[in-house]
Amino acid sequence: xxxxxxxxxxxxxxxxxxxxxxxxxxxxxxxxxxxxxxxxxxxxxxxxxxxxxxxxxxxxxxxxxxxxxxxxxxxxxxxxxxxxxxxxxxxxxxxxxxxxxxxxxxxxxxxxxxxxxxxxxxxxxxxxxxxxxxxxxxxxxxxxxxxxxxxxxxxxxxxxxxxxxxxxxxxxxxxxxxxxxxxxxxxxxxxxxxxxxxxxxxxxxxxxxxxxxxxxxxxxxxxxxxxxxxxxxxxxxxxxxxxxxxxxxxxxxxxxxxxxxxxxxxxxxxxxxxxxxxxxxxxxxxxxxxxxxxxxxxxxxxxxxxxxxxxxxxxxxxxxxxxxxxxxxxxxxxxxxxxxxxxxxxxxxxxxxxxxxxxxxxxxxxxxxxx
Length: 371
Ligand code: F6P
Description:
This protein is α/β, with parallel strands linked by helices and 371 residues long. The protein is 34% helix and 20% strand.
């Protein structure tokens, strides 16, 4: 893009929960920007928090060497810093007081002479990016999350690594469950979307898969476990999403975080469900919460490739002046959609998704009455 709007100096930030492959995107964007375009790059620390607090450092090619294989993010991240609604203190009762600090964040961007930001994050981070547009901050987004729940992209980077990690964990649990003739309830993250649990459950041969999109009936689960025991199966593996809910029931909320843009912290359903199943089936049960374990570790080869493609595409959008867009992959091809089409929205597992039918066909129970 020629003219005064041309990009010469960019910032990169990573927001929301970390996941494997973020560093691969940072490396891809930085090296492509420097080598292909001759731009200057800056790393913003801890997501939008660093933009608000003006914690911004130069990123040179050497700074992103040897990070392709490293999990987490070298820039740090935050899932509490929405510039449009930033916690600036607390009232006498301890309730957070919020303020709109977008002018402050934008002033730091403009003072450094940044021409655009590459924002690597999920739906919450994209909503923050969207909110900065009216303050003259130009953004291009890259979809990141182990939850795979961003609208308009068939996959986010970090997801395939998380699936592999979850599968490895459940593969290990099969033998101990069988040796002790137990029900093993394994909980996975994913917020309100069941992608991670569905893929991990199917790939690891879980007998029961419980996802938020399909409310479960405890009676059906109990009967299923008893029938398996009666037909000679030594164990039952249950893969359950942190956001799964019983029929007519509520999600198991671990904590509410008042100053967070996403105040509901899920997690901790597995021990409750294990106890319920043990009581009603009289079969010994144990719970394992995989939690943040699946967010850690080195990215899979596929995630390194996807992250590199995403990073490259993001620089292409910057070069052609297509701001306010999120890189996505649809039917295997890279393209982009407006950021405000994905901000604060979630992509859930559709009821007619073929993997659900395939899983049911091999005998997987989803805790509902459908066979
Ligand atoms: O969005 C990614 C995710 O790992 C969710 O699956 C999970 O509910 C949430 O982040 C956990 O967030 P935190 O790291 O703040 O506990």
